[in-house]
Amino acid sequence: DTEVTQTPKHLVMGMTNKKSLKCEQHMGHRAMYWYKQKAKKPPELMFVYSYEKLSINESVPSRFSPECPNSSLLNLHLHALQPEDSALYLCASSQRGDEQFFGPGTRLTVL
Amino acid sequence: AQTVTQSQPEMSVQEAETVTLSCTYDTSESDYYLFWYKQPPSRQMILVIRQEAYKQQNATENRFSVNFQKAAKSFSLKISDSQLGDAAMYFCAYRSGEYGNKLVFGAGTILRVKS
């Protein structure tokens, strides 16, 4: 299984809602990533988890809260988002030092 | 800090022809990896090709090959025999060292393939 899955595919939420994005991989990778991607732009790194511990936080606002319950799962909890947070949210995973495998993304719209 | 520059926002190629996408990078490190990723419209980002900086030989993957010029800090991607399925956004990316986790992406190049 060389796949990273993400749910949901699409999400529409209001600025007062709380929602979560989920990411799963079964490749035994020990590093997992969250990226934010605006249209026709490169992905921007948000968080990196290495061996289930947060290793990189790219100064992301606290309305985004990552969680890594186990080595296969990565969540991104969303609360009080702004319209400018609307974007494609990509999850990726890698074995240490190897290429990153990307999921299909969750397209988020904040109203 | 490392930077990656893709100077071609858009490129077009006729089906079956060859096209080269440019990428330059800036780093003071000696140990690093370079990648080309492909992202088709509304589809998943996938790795096209990777190059280890310590390898002098240019990487190739079927119709995709790179021209890695370490001294010039240049890493271009050549696509031969272009196919309609090659139409996508292509990102050049840099990663530090053998165990680096952070990818630094270029701005991307949109490749259009004409039939």
Secondary structure: elements and pairs:
The complex is a heterodimer of chains A (111) and B (115).
Chain A: E1 4-7, E2 10-13, E3 18-25, E4 31-37, E5 44-50, E6 53-57, E7 64-70, E8 73-79, E9 87-94, E10 101-102, E11 106-110
Parallel strand pairs in A: 2-11
Antiparallel strand pairs in A: 1-3, 3-8, 4-5, 4-9, 5-6, 7-8, 9-10, 9-11
Chain B: E1 3-5, E2 10-14, E3 19-21, E4 24-26, E5 32-39, E6 46-52, E7 60-61, E8 64-69, E9 74-79, E10 88-96, E11 103-105, E12 109-114
Can you put this structure into words, describing what you see?
The complex is a heterodimer of chains A (111) and B (115). Chain A is mainly β and 111 residues long. Chain A has strands spanning 4-7, 10-13, 18-25, 31-37, 44-50, 53-57, 64-70, 73-79, 87-94, 101-102, 106-110. In chain A, the strands form two sheets. In chain A, strands 2, 4, 5, 6, 9, 10 and 11 form a seven-stranded mixed β-sheet that branches. A four-stranded antiparallel β-sheet of chain A has the order 1-3-8-7, with no helix packed on it. In chain A, a hairpin with a 2-residue loop joins strand 5 and strand 6 (53-57). The termini of chain A are far apart. The mean pLDDT of chain A is 93. Chain B is mostly beta strands. In chain B, the strands form three sheets. In chain B, strands 2, 5, 6, 10, 11 and 12 form a six-stranded mixed β-sheet that branches. In chain B, strands 3-9-8-7 form a four-stranded antiparallel β-sheet, with no helix packed on it. In chain B, strands 1-4 form a two-stranded antiparallel sheet. The model of chain B has no long low-confidence stretch (mean pLDDT 94). Chain A binds chain B through residues 31, 33, 40-43, 45, 48, 50, 55-56, 90, 94, 96-97, 99-105, and chain B through 35, 37, 43-47, 50, 89, 91, 97-103, 105-108, 110.
